[in-house]
């Protein structure tokens, strides 16, 4: 039976994989094909990557523009945290669709189904299947298909995922994933998305004892799945195992209050105004301009280009180069300044971050991501199964959008309308493409 299993260690940059701290990943690297040219998307943030992985399309197509973003609602620009459990349901009510293109769960609903176990933010988890075509298990609420009408249905209490966002929660989720999704229910696609090491990296310096301890535990959890999938192969299944991360991390070197600078420059009326919104996505920002204020765009462009903290400024006409589109007033994307400076533990790569308008602030000296800098754009990808060569490293450029068509090719399901391309060197034997 052809099956695909995806394991994501959130936030793990590929240069942090080592024999000392990630022995299971190092061993899997000899079993799998490795992709040293693998990149994240922009913003390099989990909610965006989740929607991109699930659809095989860039944000310009699936329309989840950032971890935080703005929507035009009743003529007003309204900021949103896409991690909120109900955000995608709200987006459907406002725009008519949660995501603008089909997810893997939708494509596989009649071809073996999809099950996702996820321990990151609720919004990122539900981006895999916001409309209830398969099953999503998350600590904020677990959902499956509503058999009486289109949409998702909250699962019974006995099926809910009661875990914490830490290594212990990841362990309990992994054990349930192996026993329930891999051994018992056996869907065509099973996804395990670990909260570590991303969670600890936001709260402790990269390379610190706390970080390395959580990293070793995340590696152990990946090892549990790798062993289970190897047993599936021995028992006659034909699994494709994808082990990856969604983005890397840079060390926070400073915090920039973009809104405050816009107000001081006369480009934004006040902190609560909806004329211009500079929405933080960690080491990047999405800058929205209300349609009634488009006359300020040239001045805003000059202002952003003049800022010492702006590493790369992308205007509306060039948003396509970073996989974005000028919808809902999105006028600029900014990746903040970064450099190769090492932190106190010798881990290279530092970045400025954009101060969020609300919620938790970034911690100086700890990790963050979201932009185009080298290390946050250096996740890892390893694939084992038909069409891939064990122990081989490929350096050609590939990206998160390529995962979904790779999954569908293995399962023999049509992958039309995607931005990505399947990564198999050859078409796996005994495969028939189904519409």
Summarize it.
This protein has about 425 residues and is an alpha/beta fold.
Please, could you describe this protein's structure?
The protein has 435 residues and is α/β, with parallel strands linked by helices. The protein has two domains: 2-64 and 99-248 and 377-411, 3-Layer(aba) Sandwich (Alkaline Phosphatase, subunit A), CATH 3.40.720.10; 251-368, Gyrase A, domain 2 (2-Layer Sandwich), CATH 3.30.1360. Helices cover 27% and strands 24% of the residues. The chain contains twelve helices and 22 strands. It has helices at 23-31, 46-55, 59-62, 87-95, 104-107, 122-126, 167-185, 198-201, 209-234, 258-264, 297-306, 403-411, and strands spanning 2-9, 33-35, 38-39, 68-73, 76-81, 114-118, 135-137, 143-145, 152-154, 189-194, 238-244, 250-256, 276-280, 284-289, 310-315, 330-336, 338-342, 348-354, 367-368, 381-384, 393-394, 398-399. The strands form six sheets. The chain has an eight-stranded mixed β-sheet with strand order 7-6-10-1-11-20-2-21, sandwiched between helices. It has a four-stranded mixed β-sheet with strand order 17-18-12-19, with no helix packed on it. A four-stranded antiparallel β-sheet has the order 13-14-16-15, with helices on one face. Helix 7 runs parallel beside helix 9 (209-234). The longest helix is centred in the middle third of the chain and has 26 residues, at 209-234. It is globular and about 65 Å long.
């Amino acid at each position: 039976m052809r099956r695909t299993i995806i394991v994501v260690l959130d936030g793990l940059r590929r240069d942090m994989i080592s024999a000392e701290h990630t022995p299971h990943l190092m061993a899997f690297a000899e079993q799998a094909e490795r992709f040293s040219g693998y990149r994240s998307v922009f913003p390099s943030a989990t909610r965006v990557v989740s929607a991109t992985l699930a659809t095989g399309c860039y944000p310009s197509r699936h329309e989840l523009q950032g971890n935080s973003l703005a929507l035009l609602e009743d003529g007003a620009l309204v900021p949103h945290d896409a991690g909120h459990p109900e955000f995608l349901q709200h987006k459907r009510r406002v725009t008519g669709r949660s995501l603008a293109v089909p997810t893997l769960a939708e494509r596989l609903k009649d071809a073996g189904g999809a099950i996702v176990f996820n321990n990151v933010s609720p919004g990122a988890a539900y981006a895999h299947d916001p409309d209830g075509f398969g099953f999503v298990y998350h600590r904020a609420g677990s959902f499956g298909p509503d058999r009486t009408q289109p949409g998702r249905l909250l699962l019974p209490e006995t099926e809910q995922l009661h875990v914490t966002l830490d290594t212990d929660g990841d362990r309990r989720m992994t054990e349930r994933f192996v026993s329930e999704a891999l051994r018992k229910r056996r869907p065509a696609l099973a996804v395990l998305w670990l909260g570590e090491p991303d969670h600890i990296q936001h709260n402790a310096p990269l390379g610190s004892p706390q970080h390395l301890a959580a990293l070793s535990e995340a590696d152990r959890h990946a090892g549990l799945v790798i062993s289970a999938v190897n047993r599936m192969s021995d028992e006659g299944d034909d699994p494709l195992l994808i082990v990856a991360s969604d983005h890397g991390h840079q060390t926070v070197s400073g915090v920039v209050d973009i809104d405050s600078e816009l107000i001081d420059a006369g480009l934004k009326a006040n902190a609560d105004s909806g004329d211009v919104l500079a929405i933080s996505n960690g080491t990047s920002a999405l800058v929205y301009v209300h349609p009634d204020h488009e006359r300020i765009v040239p001045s805003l462009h000059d202002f952003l280009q003049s800022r010492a903290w702006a590493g790369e400024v992308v205007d509306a006409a060039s948003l396509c180069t970073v996989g974005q589109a000028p919808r809902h007033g999105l006028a600029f994307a900014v990746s903040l300044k970064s450099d190769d400076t090492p932190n106190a533990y010798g881990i290279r790569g530092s970045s400025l971050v954009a101060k969020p308008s609300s919620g938790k602030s970034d911690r100086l000296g700890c990790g963050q991501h979201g932009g185009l800098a080298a290390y946050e754009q250096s996740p890892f990808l390893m694939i084992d199964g038909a069409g891939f060569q064990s122990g081989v490293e490929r350096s050609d450029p590939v990206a998160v959008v390529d995962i979904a068509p790779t999954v569908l090719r293995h399962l023999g399901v049509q992958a039309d309308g995607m931005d990505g391309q399947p990564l198999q060197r050859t078409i796996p034997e005994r495969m028939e493409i189904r519409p």
